[in-house]
Each structure stands twice: as C-alpha cells, then as structure tokens.
Amino acid sequence: MAFTFAAFCYMLSLVLCAALIFFAVWHIIAFDELRTDFKSPIDHCNPVHARERLRNIERICFLLRKLVLPEYSIHSLFCIMFLCAQEWLTLGLNVPLVFYHFWRYFHCPADSSELAYDPPAVMNADTLSYCQKEAWCKLAFYLLSFFYYLYCMIYTLVSS
Amino acid sequence: MEFPFGYGLHLENYSASSGHYPQVPHEAVPSQLDNQYVADYHSACYSIPVQSVMTPSVGPSMLNTQQLYSGAPHPVESAGGLTQGAISSASYLHTSVPQSYSALSSHYSSSTSSSVASQGFSLSSGHYAMPTISSALYPNLSYPSMSVGSPYGQVFTSQSLPAVGQFKETNTFPNQSSAVPRTLQQQITLGYNSTSWSTSDFQSAQDNFSRNNTGSLAKASSQINTVGILDSLHPVSQNVQFTNPGVETSVVSSAVTSSIRTPVGDHLTEPASVPSSTQPSESLLQEAIDSSSTTSSASPVINNYDALEGGGYPETNSATSSPAPTPQTSRMPKPFGYGYPTLQPGYQNATPSTSAMQPSNPGHHSGFQQYPQQYPGVNQLSSTLGGLSLQHSQQPESLRPVNLTQERNILPVSPVLAPVPNLNSDLRKLNCSPDSFRCTLTNIPQTQALLNKAKLPLGLLLHPFRDLTQLPVITSSTIVRCRSCRTYINPFVSFIDQRRWKCNLCYRVNDVPEEFMYNPLTRSYGEPHKRPEVQNSTVEFIASSDYMLRPPQPAVYLFVLDVSHNAVEAGYLTIVCQSLLENLDKLPGDSRTRIGFITFDSTVHFYNLQEGLSQPQMLIVSDIDDVFLPTPDSLLVNLHESKELIKDLLSALPNMFINTRETHSALGPALQAAFKLMSPTGGRISVFQSQLPSLGAGLLHSREDPNQRSSTKVVQHLGPATDFYKKLALDCSGQQTAVDLFLLSSQYADLASLACMSKYSAGCIYYYPSFHHSHNPAQAEKLQKDLKRYLTRKIGFEAVMRIRCTKGLSIHTFHGNFFVRSTDLLSLANINPDAGFAVQMSIEESLTDTSLVCFQTALLYTSSKGERRIRVHTLCLPVVTSLSDVYAGADVQAAVCLLANMAVDRSVSSSLSDARDALVNAVVDSLSAYISTASNLQQSTLIAPNSLRLFPLYVLALLKQKAFRTGTSTRLDDRIYAMCQIKSQPLVHLMKMIHPNLYRIDRLTNEGAIHVNDRVVPQPPLQKLSAEKLTREGAFLMDCGSIFYIWIGKSCDNSFIKDVLGYPNYASVPQKLTQLPELDTLSSERARSFITWLRDSRPLNPVLQVIRDESPAKTDFFQHLVEDRTEAAFSYYEFLLHIQQQICK
Fold it and tell me: Do residues B999 and B1022 make contact, with C-beta atoms less than 8 angstroms apart?
C-alpha cells in the first residue's frame, strides 16, 4: 500500500475523465439539437423561427468551439502524466486518441483556426453525422478508460 | 408545366405514349395524330406493341392519316404504310407486322407477344386533307404534333381530352371559335367515318366512344388551366396544319358531337374563370429554348390519372371494359418500360396504386434485350431527322460499348440532352422537366452496394426557381400534404380509392380532404385525380395564412456602392446608376417596395431620401469602428413615394465623387450598417466593391503571390481569411437578407473571403476582372447587361427550400449558396431564377419494396408582390437491380456537374491536387467498374458505355477549367470565382462553362434550321474543341455561357468579313469588336439570328468578342480548346491513355 506518483496520476485522471465524459455527453446532445429542429414543419417557414434557429445554431457552435481546447488539453495532460509515471500500457492506449486530437486541431480547412465547428459546415448532414459518431465513440472510450483508471488506481495502491 | 426542351421532349413524350398501351387495351380513343408525323417520326421506333387492328386499306391518302388508338404512332413510313394498310384486315387481328418492317418486326413481335394486346385501330379517312400540307411542312421541323400525340397517348378513357389537346393547338388560330369545333369533328370523323370499318368492331368501338365521351366531359374541363396558361405560347410553324380550312367535317353522329362540343365550348368561353385558380406564370423572360419549344407547342395536358391508377377507379374501368373481344388487359400491370427507346410494353409492372411493382420482372429482361435490335431503327430515325436534337437518340444505345480510344468524334453534332428516365409513358410525361430537376443516375440502384459498385456519384441537380413560361398556379385554402412526411400531393401518389391517397415518399395512407374532392375548374365533384396538383409535376401553390406568421415582407433593395478613388476611376458608378434609372420601374415589387443607398470609402455615407425633401440629403458617418444609423427611418424609402428624389440621387451620384482622393475602402463597416438598416425587414443588399477592403472590421490583406499563379503544386488561400464575412452573412441570413456581391476589381481583392458574404446568405456573386468603363468595353457591356437582368429578374424573399425523397434514400450534402438550417432545410434569404443547387445522396436502406423513387423539392418564398408561394417540383425515377441498368441510366452531364461541386469542396477543405486526383479517379473508377462488369469486352481497351462516353472528355475539360487547372497562370480571384460559379450555377450554364460549344459560322446554311418566331435559325453542327477543327479559312463561334468568342482565321473568306462583320477585309477588323453590325445580307442575318437564338436561351446576356487570329485575346479563346495539349495538361487522347493506364494498374 503505497501512494505512488502513478496512483496519483490515476486518481487525477479519474476525476478529469469524469469531466471528459461530461463533455462527450454534451457534444452528443448538442449535435442532436443541431440535427433535429423540433418546431412544427409549418413553423419552419416562419422568419421569426428562422432567426431563433440560426441564433441557436450559432450559440451551439460557439460553445462547441470553446470546448475543443479544454478537452484536447485535458487529454494531453493525461498522456504527459502517464509518460512521467512510466505507465506505458495506459499511455499506449491513449496515444492514438492524442494523435487524432492533434490531427483534428491542426488540420483545419481554412486559414483561420477559428473555423472548427463553423455553423455552415457543421450543418452539413455529412459532417454532422461524422461529428455525432465521433462524440459517441469518445464517450465510449472515456467511459471504458474511466473504469480502467479506477481499476489501475486501486491496483497500484494495493500492489506496491 | 413547361417543356423547355423543345423538340426532344416532345419526341420523348411521343415515344412514351406507346409504353402504356398494354394497359390500355382497347380504349377506343382515336386520337387525332398529325398524320404526317406519324409517318415521319414513327417510322421505325414507334413500334407498336400492339396488335393493331386495321381497317382495310383504302389508298395512299389514308395511310398518312392512319390513326391509332390512344395516339400511338404507328410505325408507318409512308412507303411502309402502304403495305401495312394493305395487310390489315377488317376484324380484330393480331397483325403480324408487315414485312416491310422487317427491322422492327422481330423486335416487336417479341415484345408484343409477351405484352398486352392493345389494339391500334388505324382509322383512315379519305377526305382528310392534311397529309399534303403536312409533308410540305415537315422540313421546317414542326414537331408540335408530338405533343398533340402525347395527350392522346396517355388518355385512358376520355375521348374529350384529345380534343382539348387539340384545342390547344388550335387556339392560336386566328379564327379560334370556328377552328375548334372543326378540329373536334375532324377527330370524330376520324373515329367514325372511316368508311371501311368492319361493322361489328366498329360498333363496339363506337360504344366505347360514346361512353368515353360522355364519361369524360368533366375531365376535359379540368384541363382549362393548362389551356389558359398555354396561350402565351404561340406555336409558330405548326399553325398551318390545323388551320387547314379544307378539312371537311363530315358525317358525325350528332349525339356524340354535341356531347363533346359542350365541354370544348366551355373551354372557349371560360378563360375568364381560369385565373380563379390558375394563372399564367409571370415569366419575365422567355428563354429562347422555351420559345423554341413553342414551336413544338408544349401542351401540358396531362391527364394520366387513369392510367396511373389503372385499377383504382371503378368508372374508368367500366369504360375500359367495354365490349371488345381482345385480350382484356385493363388490369394488367403497368408497363414500366425497359424497352429503352420506346418503352416497349414488354416490361410490365404493377400499377403504382397497388404498389406491387415487382422488381424481379420477367418482362424486364426481355425488354432489355431488345435494344440491339432496335438500334438500326433508331439510328435510321435520327439520321433521317438530321440536325434535330433527338432527345433519346442515344438512349436506346446508352449501353452500347464505345471504344474511347478509337472513336475520334466522340462529341455529337447536336447538343447533348438529358437522358430520359426509363419510365412508362404516362409517368414520363408527368415527370419534372430535366431543366429544373435532374438526377445523375436516371436509374436509381436498388442498394448502396450496387451504387458503390457502379462508382458513379448519386445526386440531384436543381434549378428550382427557373423562369418558366407556363406554370400552373393553384390557389386553394388547403394544400394537400402527407400527414407524416409533409410531402405535397403530386402526380406520382396513388389514390387507393376516392377518399384516400398513398404518399409516394413515405407510403402513408392519407385522407383526401373534402375540399380536394371538388374540382373548381370543372365544377365537378369526386375527381381528386383531375386536380392540377395531380396533373403537373411542377406546380405553384399560393399559400394560405398558415404559412406565414408575420405579414409577408415587402421587396426591399439596398445598394451599397464603393466610391473610393479606385472605384470612381473604374467608372462603374455611371453604369450602375444608369441601369438603375432605366429599370427603376421594372424592379420587382408592389406598392410597398423600398429602396435605399449607402456609399462608402473610408467613411460611410447614407442618403436621406424622405419624401418631402427638396433634394437627397447625404449623411456621413466617419466613426467606422462603431457604425450607427444617423436617421433609422428615412434611409430606406418607399420607391414610389420618393421616386423623384431617388432619380435625383442616381443622376447626381456618378459626379459626386469624381474628384475623390480617398483610396481606402471600409467595406466591413458599410456592410454592418447595411445589415442594421435591413434587419427589421429583410431584403436584398447589392454590394459593389472595387478593391481589397482596407479599413475597419473585415479588412483583408493581399494573400496572393503572383509568382505562384502557375504553380503546379499547392494553391493556397482558397478559403476565407477571416470569419467576419461569414458571420455577417449568417446574421443577414437570420434576418432574411441576402447579400449580392459585384466585384469590379483590377487587382487581387480576396474573393475567397468576400464571397462568404453571398455564399451563406443565398446571394449571388458577379466578378468583372480588370473592369474599366473605357479601357475594357466588353466588361462594361457585360456589367450593363448583367445589371439589367439582375434588377428586373424575378425574386423571392424569405425562402426556404426542402428536398424530400423516398424513404430509403437520404440526402447528405448540399451545394449552392444558402445556409442549411436543419439537415434537410435550406434557408434562402433570397431566391433568384439563376440559382442552381446540387445535392448528394446516399441509399440508406435498400429499395427492394419499390420500383419507383420520387424526389420533391418544395420552395416556399414570398413573391415580390407580397404573396407567399410554394413551388413544388417532383421527379420520379425507376429503381433498377442490375449494374448495367445503372450505367444505362447515367446522366453524364449531371454527374460531371455534381463532381465539379464536390471537387470545389474538396479543394477548399483539402487541396486542389486532391480535388484533381479525385476527378480523375472518378473516371477511372467508373470506367474500370464498367469494364469489369462487361466481361465479354477486351480488358485492354478503354471501353465506356455509350451513356458515359463523354465522361472522360468532360472531366478533362473540368481539369482545364479555371477553377481546377494547374500549371497555367490563373489569378486566384479568377479561380475562386470559377469555383463560386460551379457551386451556384444551374446545370445548363455550368455545362457551357465546363465544355463550351464551338460552331463554325462562316458557312451557315438553312439545312436543318429551325424556326423560332418567324425567324430561321440555322443549326450548325457542334465542333469538337480542338485546334484541328479550326481552319484559317473559317470563322468560329464559341459559346462559353457568359461570353461568346468569334474567332476569325487569317485567310477567312472576305465575303464573310464583309457580309457579317461589315469590314472590307481581314486586316481592317478592329481588335475590340463586340457587336455584329446589322447588315442586310443573308449570311449576316443567319449569323445574327443564330447568335440571338443562343443568347435568348440564357438569362445572362453574354458578351460577344470578335478575335482575330493574331490578337492578344486569342489565348482566351484557345484556352477553351480542351481537347488540345497544353504545356501543363494532357490532350484528350493522352488523357484517355492515362486513364487506361490507371485502369490496367
């Protein structure tokens, strides 16, 4: 029973992982909101509704953009910690996602990086379904890793 | 309904008519075809499925007038007719097709045997005087008869319908009232007085007749609307046939005639009642194509309901089952045409109403195998028709393998037309015009797997707000829609019984509302299927108050004008103000129309035009970081109340800034101000900008490196530099405001960023590179013409467009200028008639339980008159299960346009070279997939199905297009503009942009010429785009859509230069010639009428540029010769070899 650095890492990542799960859930909800317009069909034609809807979309996209950086940095933080703690297996599990995040972040279509989740692009059904799938996958990944971290934490605490 | 395609379409209709024979077994509807056409057109390919029962022949005259039931053209060539007539026997006979038809016979006999016995009653009337006239007429290509045929063809039971169709033809006659009854009688005459009818059969036919006649009186009148609409069209060349006073009206059984006449009389007198529910559409411009279709007199009478609903209607059935000793097939499934050219009845399918269309149809295959046999016939036909654009001339052989590397003349001599979906005749006739709605695959594959195998893109190309010459407009308090998917009722729904209809998109069974049962046109009750909504695939509803929660917005126009030094120097202000002054009264709008002006340089200037002021007041806001409106209520003023002030301002404006030294441009702040001004109402902002915005929000920096213009590697900066314009556009879109951009810049102006303001607000973009009013007169003229069109064209405000499709298909990507509000709803602040859209689709669930899929676009907009209207287009396509069918139905032009749209997206999101690779791969993949399916072909040669034979050529043209070319110096703005156009142009214009048409015009002849509005328009053959076709002795016209080049060879015939250009010899032709003089010579007249005809076919008036062989502008011309090799790109042949190499790899 020893409180090693590795154990600390796992405890911290457990907490942060909860945050990531929350983010992923929020993403799913947001994309769902973008996808479905709950108003009645006739209401679509109403210009007032059009305005509301547009504001809504913009707001959601704005929030989505805000969440990009925290999510990515939290996840990178894990990896750095696991690297320091020399938890190779855990690191190996997380590395693909880190690379994916890097790719997403730096592979921005336009000149300005602000354009990730920009409203016209996100509303494209193709992009939207991609984002939605991505969010579900992440949720699954984070959930699994949550329990994995929990197990690892207990294991490190108990074993050494 | 409109029939934009002139001849082709009608032809198609015609041919179509034979298709539904089978299920119309013995309706005695002797339709009056124009006999001459029967003879000429249907020589070979109109086959008749039918065991035609013929009257014993009378003589040559009768042959020409042969009448078939239900308007099926009989395969009679005048010579052939003789024999046939001779053979036919008196009673019902399964006519084995006469010998003279050997080409056809094999085919037909095969088809007929399996198919239904429908009988053509060929009637003859000796006294019918037409043939002579008609034959004289024929060279002038009056096809109109086709369309006459079409209504008949589809008529199920109603005798009076043909009469209506006929009437339409005739209603352009000077002596209408007399003409109509006459034609009617004529018809009847044909039916009854054929002297030689064998009596018993005749009797039964007569029975049919009278029943039909009486039964369908009411139905006939449902056509009124279309009649009313039609009259804007004047069938020109065709008039003659029917006006023929010599047509004798002879013995007519009086009872019948009277019953028939009445409805017609109604029609004649009733036009007054027409507007009540249908009005001729306010078509601003009649495109020439449309007007040429005039010649063919598009008759939108579509009355196929019965046919569609084959089994559904008791009364129709009773009519059909009148005594006739022939095989009774009234309940036979519908033919669902697989016989390619003419839809042979060999292919049978279930009626849509029962929805039991069996995909695994035995008839299908037999039908398919028919085509080889049919080629000769069809080819022969097309060759006899010479230069006519026969729409389906390539259709029957769309699967014929073409060896691309060996075929030297791959380009047809006449313009390529849209393939016709392989539907049965009535559906085909009802289907939406390919100009408004086209699918890349006219045969939809059943599963995504099949689609993946074919490696062809699946998508739609839309031109929803096109100017139409005829459009049924429906006013009704309830608009009938499906309760679950909200689909509008359309011709492809099925009526289960009188009270219920089944949605063709989601298959829900809906009730027919009480109101829909009553047909206001006929004042009859219980015929929901006769309503115009169910008769036309393109209709416009005037929406009830449910569709607006606020009063419809007035037309509001705001002009934002750049008045910096650069702009003043270019001198565009004069042109804009002049055009506005000229068109002020023609701006679409009603009494509420409002207008306003903002000018800007480094400050923003507003103009107070409040009524009552003595002169316009200029208000300058210099605080560009926080723009405010100086007087919010008097900047946008009522056009009519303040007209004088507006005129004062417009005449003063060009001179107000003449001495300005301000070089900066604060576009961003000016746009913010414009947005603030417009947000309470919404409307249209027109921005004129002449340089890179350099001050305030949204300022941009030059990103273009001129040295990189011809780089073959990376092209950067295709995306916007800032979010400002996109955000502004979204805000505008939310306030129902569209921003249209006119960029008149001689230097780099970062169109990539500026274009965002129009892209997401559903605006449009015009770009005039190196614009100068005096140095570049061609651009100045273009601006003037574009403005004229821009200011006067139709406009729809606060629009939304939704595209629905049959369950199983899903739409996933949209292309065009709009904002996607929810996954299938496009928000369009403005809609203009020149906007095109493209849509990509995928097949989510396999379409096994259906054999038809439908697509419906509904565009809800506020017209400039403040009416809320919904324009609905419905397209119906067959589903196929085999790969070869998918290839057979490929629409190469639509596919190329869709690929171009996808490539634009790809180049912005990834890179240009990726996009280019993707284009090449699209060809390679589809052709290799085709080759691997056709196992009997040699693997080493490059084979394409005939339907895709132009695919490599078009893709090569696309690779050499400004948007995608590399290696050739291309300014970034030019490139971006080309991309914007690809995204927002409708297919017809886009195709011209990608692959221009080249004609030789120094030797125009009247051979194959067509007649449009009393003018003879020569139809020179298309030349392939290669320098090898250019000869020094000739003069060539290249039609690039927005610009016409006339290239004159060095040793061009002096007589051409003198007679057409008006200069004594080649050397004296000036460098900048933009007009052809009106000379009184035959060749000048021909050239001008040809060019005018080309011009009229498009909304934007193209500029003409005459280029001498050695002039510097020559490169503009030569860059369009896509089949030639350039230093940076393949020639066509090399490209083919490259593809072949890729395939073999």
Answer: yes
CB contact under 8 A, A55 and B811: no
Instruction: Evaluate whether B5 touches B98 at the Cβ level (below 8 Å).
Output: no
Q: How far apart are CA B560 and CA B545, in angstroms?
A: 34
B576 pLDDT tier (thresholds 50, 70, 90): very high
Tell me the longest C-alpha to C-alpha distance in chain A.
66
CA angle B617/B620/B625 to nearest 5° reads: 150
Q: Is A40 on the interface with B (CB under 8 A)?
A: no
Task: Tell me the residue ranges of DSSP E strands in B46-159.
Answer: 53-54, 121-122
If you measure CA to CA, which chain A residue comes closest to B553? A47
Going from the C-alpha of B1052 to that of each of B534, B1005, B1031, B1036, the distances in angstroms are: 56, 17, 9, 10
CA closest to B906 among chain A residues: A109
Which tens digits make up the pLDDT trace of B512-545? 888 888 777 777 777 777 788 888 899 999 887 7
Question: B826 is written with which tokens?
Answer: 């496009």
Give the integer Cα–Cα distance in Å for B169 and B180.
9
Give pLDDT, residue B878.
Answer: 92
pLDDT at B893 over 90: yes
Instruction: Inform me whether the C-beta atom of residue B823 falls under 8 Å from chain A C-beta atoms.
Output: yes
Task: List residues bridging with B813 in a β-sheet.
Answer: B840
To test the contact with chain A by mutation, choose from B730, B811, B831, B906 the residue with the greatest count of A C-beta atoms within 10 A, namely B730
For position B596, what pLDDT does the model report? 93
pLDDT at A22: 93
Provide the terminal-to-terminal Cα distance of chain A, rounded to the nearest Å. Answer: 5
Q: How far apart are CA B679 and CA B735, in angstroms?
A: 5
Instruction: Output B648-653 pairs: Cβ under 8 A, ≥24 positions apart.
Output: B648/B615, B648/B616, B649/B597, B649/B607, B649/B609, B649/B616, B650/B577, B650/B580, B650/B581, B650/B584, B651/B577, B651/B581, B652/B616, B653/B561, B653/B573, B653/B577, B653/B597, B653/B599
What's the rounded mean pLDDT across residues B145-154?
A: 36
Chain A residue at shortest CA distance from B910 = A109
Place of tokens 């790719």: A103
Of A36, A47, A118, the CB nearest to B822: A36
Interatomic CA distance for residues B215 and B523, integer angstroms = 15
B1118 at interface of A, judged by CB pairs closer than 8 A:
no
Residue of B nearest to A40 (CA): B486
Buried b (16+ CB within 10 A) or exposed e, A18-28: eebbebbeebb
Residue B18's alpha-carbon distances to B22, B23, B28, B60, in angstroms, are 8, 10, 15, 24
pTM: 0.70
Sign of CA dihedral B762, B763, B764, B770: negative
Query: Per the structure block, which two tokens stand in for B788?
Result: 């004229």
B821 close contact with A: CB closer than 8 A: yes
